[in-house]
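Bench log. Compound arrived from synthesis this morning; before running ITC I wanted a structural hypothesis for how pyridoxal-5'-phosphate sits in the protein. Inputs:
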Amino acid sequence: MPTLQDLDADALASFRAAKEEEFAALKARGLKLDLTRGKPSSAQLDLSDALLTLPTTTKDRSGADVRNYGGLEGLPELREIFAELLWVETDQVVCGGNSSLTLMHQVLTSLLLHGGPGSERPWKDEPALKFVCPVPGYDRHFSMLADLGIEMVTVDMFDDGPDVDAVAALVKDDPAVKGIWIVPTYANPSGAVVSAEVAAALMAMPTAAPDFRIMWDNAYAFHHLTEDEAKSADALSLAAASGHPDRPIMFASTSKITFAGAGVSVVAASAANKAWYLKHLAMASIGPDKINHLRHVEFFGSADGVRAHMRKHRDIIAPKFDAVDVALGTALDGLDVAEWTKPTGGYFVNLDVLDGTATRVVALAKDAGIALTPAGASFPHGHDPRDRNIRLAPTFPVLEEVETAMAGVATCVALAAAEKLSGA
Ligand code: PLP
């Protein structure tokens, strides 16, 4: 079949009529499906139910009573597990509460209020503040910056990470550019894995700001969908080796490993950054929930325990990602109206439809009872200049629902493209 663009007016009109009929049938089914947010499914949450009856003791390895105050850095045995998983030193790790996003917010607010290692003044006293945002990216990273009054400058996200030349050009002469978001492994939503070369370039590039920070959000470091398990670039060592040890601050959590919103979080950084972080944290907390830390230590046993656990997640969710690919491929292959990723890890599929049709696709899907993330959600202020990007999150619904929803989405993509090409 020729691509949709190549069809003559009559052929395009009959393609559109066929898709309109397909869409009417879809609507008549009265579906109620939701692919909006990257949440674990109930079956995934069930994998961690043993946590509900842990811990079996009240003491950590050193004999400290986990029911009491103290231990700001988190349980050493949990820090060890994360250090091994993230390829950092235990000394560099602090384990926190139930949300890594909260840690990122704390880091940014402390930088704003006080500045950090290398800062000339608190960020709030700078004449202007900007962050580089690879797009598409994580919507909550962007809304956090917007809320804190930090201007966002976008660069493209490629298969091996952000467009480093574009990043280097932005940071080189402008001291207002203070940082960048990076989701290095199985990025949200593109699934890209930052290569060691790109990571090294980011850590080494000259920046006008002396306190430039790379917010290295490794939320999906262990969330492999295939046996080809990507290894995250070694951010802290690369930064130290290039003379900028304080540039990256690494984050992760077990939100999509154990319980979303009831897991444990982690920050890893240079000695100076860690001391700075703990100094400010001490003003806000007498210590983390060590019972939850111990519960997770008992549940996993070791870093290998985490890896084995993640393979169980993979078995549940990999078929859903396959279903997305099959549904889109079956309906759209050859039409040249959409491109989508086939991620090897993470939680999302990135769907790029014909320019100018993403909003229409999401509206059509909504009309047919299929909730999708709003078009543009993966861009700062929700504005996708090409109106083509849609983030698909297939983990939460059961497999049959993913299949049904995605066949429906494919119909909407084709119909919206036919409408656009026929000028209405
Ligand atoms: N970082 C990224 C890239 C995410 O996609 C998410 C959740 O979707 C989070 C952080 C949230 O992490 P947490 O639950 O630890 O706050």
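What the model suggests: The chain has 13 helices and 13 strands. The mean pLDDT is 97.
ITC booked for Thursday regardless.
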